[in-house]
Specification:
The complex is a heterodimer.
Chain A (H helix, E strand, L loop, with lengths): L1 H34 L3 H4 L14 H7 L2 H34 L5 H10 L9 H10 L7 H4 L8 H12 L3 H9 L4 H12 L1 H17 L2 H6 L8 H8 L9 H36 L1
Helix pairs in contact in A: 1-14, 3-14, 4-8, 4-11, 8-11, 8-14, 9-10, 11-14, 13-14
Chain B lengths: L4 H33 L4 H35 L18 H9 L1 H32 L6 H14 L3 H10 L6 H12 L1 H26 L3 H9 L17 H11 L2 H13 L2 H9 L4 H29 L3 H7 L6 H4 L2 H12 L2 H29 L6
Helix pairs in contact in B: 1-2, 2-17, 4-8, 4-10, 4-11, 4-13, 4-16, 5-11, 6-14, 7-8, 8-9, 11-13, 12-13, 13-17, 16-17
Classes of the chains: A mainly alpha, B mainly alpha.
């Protein structure tokens, strides 16, 4: 019975999985397909799966749009500057919570975990006033600098779990050799947590690249807009006809870096770094 | 201030790093001094210094970006402070809170909308995540590829670009989703009845919740009187107030991959012997799922529930991208955070906005702590 049943079950499973994959990736497919269509085709009453004569007009238009190109550069600039500082400070703090024994460590760690309950949005109003006092409205500072203070308790937690698993003897022997905490952090611990570090870096990158609310509040002028803010202005409810091919082209170009990063980082993310952190 | 925004950002970043280093050493020295006073050994003093030095970026940031803002916003929530006016803030007592709770229809609607998204969207999201995880937990070749495909939406997340792709797909007349629904229902009439039944049920439910937030149930009566939807009816995704929240829920379900990954880990942790023993005892696979797998998964379900609750109660981006400026639809779709953003930053009424933030904070804390309270009724930990 089993021998007859199994291949059928197997085929059924594959059909289900393929159907789910098609559904899950459909928005992406539709984005690419629509970016190659003409305006008439995106508004056509019949289904056009793929444009009959793919046109790159929208791409040419977008590449000549200086606002779009500037917002692309802004996003790359802000993300790299913010990512470097955030990642380093998170690693330093995770080191303090995993490799050093100090009085008050458990209490501070508990408070840090408790802050994950506070929605960041509950803080946007007072933070706005604070950044206004610093004259930071209309600059990149409010979306870069807060991360330098180890922004992201969940990421600190993830990295701490990974660092806790390194055997204590390693740094003890380094201590005997006369190394200090900075050297142990940089030369012993960091090289051993490369995979979790890559995971955290990916999550941070994705969060920054997708971030809409704070850039929207703080950047104010089109010169400083990041991609999510700029792309959202392309869709304007007051227009009778939306320029869908242009919007979808901008969307494709916005998502490409995300897909590339995910492609390289997926084995770190999916193979249980996140999940093994959970268990501790 | 430097004219060039990029140079300005780099210089400020350097200044911030210098500030962090100085304050870290200050905290470290202070901690060592206190340790010395309490008579700790030399090694303990060194560890105290190093520990506080390394943890200080977070400690200092926590004080600057969380504690101080929370304190100020608590104070401002009792005042009429406005950031653009030069007048000092006046103490108004509980007026902001009273206004919000009693008079502000928009805020009440935003709470009901958010609870709707959470109560209906989150179970659907978790159900789909569990289903995908069960499908992926089979011994099949190519599972890695499927897993990647299911997780990709999490990475794309609520990026504006992806949300606009959904906006295009959800167009009522020419959107691909409705076009597929139309052609399928025309080809296979029985499916048409199912779809129309779904539309009827969905519109009644949404109209009921809209009635809750507006106080009048006219819309629901009208839907009921209109009766069973006609054959050519399709969902009015981003066009009718009765569908706006459904579109957001669709997006939530699409991003179920993060929860799926957690469930998958849970399924992999279940000892094989348990299943084999149940099979020997003659339990059907359906029964095995509910009696063996499900109880062992409850800790993972609980984790997903908490993370999902916090995320759903803070939803903002889909509402901003899909419905911003679309006045007839905004009241039916706005979430608490969207309302906070709009109320605070359209008139820069900091006092009123602070009161909204505090109510949102309290709602989230109450809902999550209820979950923690009732967890021992259904979460099984002892088998691990």
């Amino acid at each position: 019975m089993r021998e007859i049943f199994d291949p059928i079950k197997r085929i059924l499973l594959y059909i289900l999985l393929t159907a789910a994959t098609i559904l899950m990736s459909f928005p992406l497919f539709w984005m690419i397909s629509s970016s190659l269509k003409t305006l008439e085709e995106t508004n056509s009453a019949g289904i056009i799966w793929l444009p009959k004569a793919p046109t790159l007009d929208a791409y040419i238009g977008v590449f000549q749009n200086s606002d779009f190109l500037r917002s692309y550069f802004n996003t790359v600039f802000y993300t790299s500057l913010a990512l470097a500082g955030t990642l380093l400070s998170i690693a330093i703090v995770a080191y303090a919570f995993s490799r050093i024994k100090w009085p008050g460590r458990n209490l501070v760690f508990f408070i840090m975990l408790a802050t994950m309950m506070i929605p960041p949005q509950a803080l946007i109003v007072p933070q706005y006033v604070f950044f206004n006092k610093l004259n930071w409205i209309g600059t990149f500072n409010p979306i870069i600098i807060p991360g330098y203070f180890a922004g992201g308790a969940a990421m600190v937690f993830l990295l701490r779990q990974a660092m806790s698993q390194i055997p204590k003897e390693l740094d003890e022997s380094a201590f005997v050799d006369g190394a200090n905490h900075f050297q142990i952090f940089w030369e012993v611990v960091l090289p051993l947590v490369k995979a979790p570090l890559a995971t955290v870096a990916t999550f941070l990158f994705v969060g920054m690249w997708n971030n809409l609310l704070s850039p929207l509040m703080y950047l104010q002028t089109v010169d400083l807009y990041t991609l999510p803010v700029y792309v959202s202005t392309l869709y304007n409810i007051n227009l009778t006809v939306q320029q869908w091919p242009t919007i979808m082209t901008a969307a494709v170009l916005t998502t490409v870096p995300l897909i590339i990063v995910f492609f390289f980082a997926q084995r770190f993310i999916l193979d249980g770094v996140v999940v093994s952190g959970l268990k501790g | 201030m430097v004219e060039n925004p990029y140079l300005d950002a780099i210089l400020t970043a350097i200044a911030a790093i210098i500030f962090i280093i100085i304050s870290c050493f200050a905290v470290g020295w202070l901690a060592r001094y206190i340790a010395k006073l309490t008579g700790a050994s030399r090694k303990e003093q060194e560890n105290t210094f190093a520990g506080y030095l390394f943890a200080s970026p977070w400690i200092v940031g926590f004080l600057i970006f969380v504690i101080v803002p929370l304190g100020f916003s608590l104070y401002w929530s009792f005042t009429d402070y406005r950031v653009i006016s030069s007048e000092p803030a006046n103490w108004v007592g509980l007026e902001n809170y009273a206004q919000l709770i009693i008079n502000d229809d928009g805020f009440r609607a935003s709470i009901i909308n958010t609870l709707f998204l959470t109560a209906i969207g989150l179970p659907l999201q978790m159900g789909v995540a569990l289903l995908l995880a069960v499908l992926l937990n089979q011994k099949l070749q190519g599972v890695r590829v499927f897993r990647m495909a299911f997780y990709l939406p999490v990475i794309l997340g609520f990026n504006t670009a992806v949300l606009l792709s959904w906006r295009l797909m959800l167009n009522t007349g020419t959107g691909i989703i409705n076009q597929i629904i139309r052609s399928v229902t025309q080809a296979v009439p029985p499916i048409g009845y199912v779809v129309r039944g779904g539309i009827f049920f969905q519109e009644l439910t949404s109209a009921f919740f809209l009635g809750l937030s507006s106080g009048s149930f006219n819309l629901m009566t009208r839907v009921w009187e209109a009766g069973f939807p006609a054959a050519n009816r399709v969902p009015l995704w981003v066009e009718s107030p009765m569908w706006t929240k459904m579109s957001v829920i669709l997006l939530m379900i699409w991003g179920a991959g993060a929860m799926m990954l957690i469930f998958l880990a849970g399924l992999k942790n279940i000892p094989k012997e348990l299943h084999e023993a149940a099979e020997v005892d003659g339990a059907s696979s359906w029964k095995r799922f509910w009696k063996v797998t499900f109880p062992l998964l409850t800790p993972y379900i609980f984790y997903n529930l908490i993370v999902g609750l916090i995320a759903a109660l803070q939803i903002f981006e889909p509402i901003y991208v899909l419905y911003r400026d679309n006045q007839p639809l905004v009241p039916s779709a706005q979430s608490m955070v969207y309302y906070l953003w709009q109320a605070s930053f359209s008139h820069f009424e900091i006092g009123y906005g602070s009161a909204i933030s505090w109510i949102i904070l309290i709602i989230i804390l109450i809902i999550t702590s209820i979950q923690f309270r009732v967890q021992d009724r259904w979460v099984t930990y002892e088998l691990y």
